[in-house]
Structure formats: structure tokens, C-alpha cells
Amino acid sequence: MKNFPSQYQELNTWMQNLGAAIPDVMGGFAQLHEKAIEKKALDSKTKELIALGIAITVRCDGCIAFHVHDAMAGGATAAEIAETIGVAILMGGGPSVVYGVEAMQAVQQYKESGL
User: Fold this and answer.
1) According to DSSP H, which parts of the chain are helical?
2) What digits encode the pLDDT tens for the residues 35-73?
3) 103 falls in which pLDDT band (50, 70, 90)?
4) I need a surface site. Which of 29, 38, 43, 81 has the fewest CB within 10 A?
5) Which CATH architecture has domain 4-112?
6) Where are the domains of the chain?
7) For residues 68 and 107, is the Cβ–Cβ distance under 8 A?
8) How many helices (H) does the chain have, and how many strands (E)?
9) What is the pTM of this model?
10) Cβ(60)–Cβ(29) under 8 Å?
């Protein structure tokens, strides 16, 4: 089983390193993320759940670590994440089941770490 809280921390460290190497690109990406997740017609939690559903369907482990974390930090419940996984399975089929399981593992690990 993957350790999603550790993966989240490690990715943050390496994205900072990447930001030092290519500050314009990573600065632009950070600004894009901030503006895309900002509350407008949809709240930030809903946008994180959408991002999680996409992460599952495109099979991105690091994205799952980030968006489960950020959705939970934004107030998403385990039930809301489970429903998001269900929609991802609808759109992504069998492989999304496997990555959906990983998202549920991430929820449990983040809960255990106090998030």
C-alpha cells in the first residue's frame, strides 16, 4: 500500500525544487492552480472533488495524493469522496476502480494522520 501523506510531503518538496529550477513555469502553474480552485460559482471543495475524479480517471497517483488531501482540507467527507470515486469509475471503467481504491486508502491515511 502506498503512503499518501508521505507522498504528498515528498511531492511538495520536489515541486519546490522544480520551482527553483524553472521558476517561471512553476510560478505560472501555481497561479493557475490558485485561480482554478478559487471559490466562484463552485466552491473550492467541489473543485477539488472534480480534480480528484479526473486524477482517478487519468491514473495519476501524485494527483490523487494532492486532491484527496486538499479536498479533505477543504471539508470534503469520506462519503463525498466515495461518490466522487463512483463518478470516476463511471467515466474511467475498471482501471478507475483500482485508482479509486487508492483514493480511499489515501482518505484513511490522512484521517489517521490527523487531517
Assistant:
1) 4-21, 23-37, 44-58, 61-73, 78-92, 94-112
2) 999 999 999 999 999 999 999 999 999 999 999 999 999
3) very high
4) 38
5) Up-down Bundle (1.20)
6) 4-112
7) yes
8) 6, 0
9) 0.91
10) no
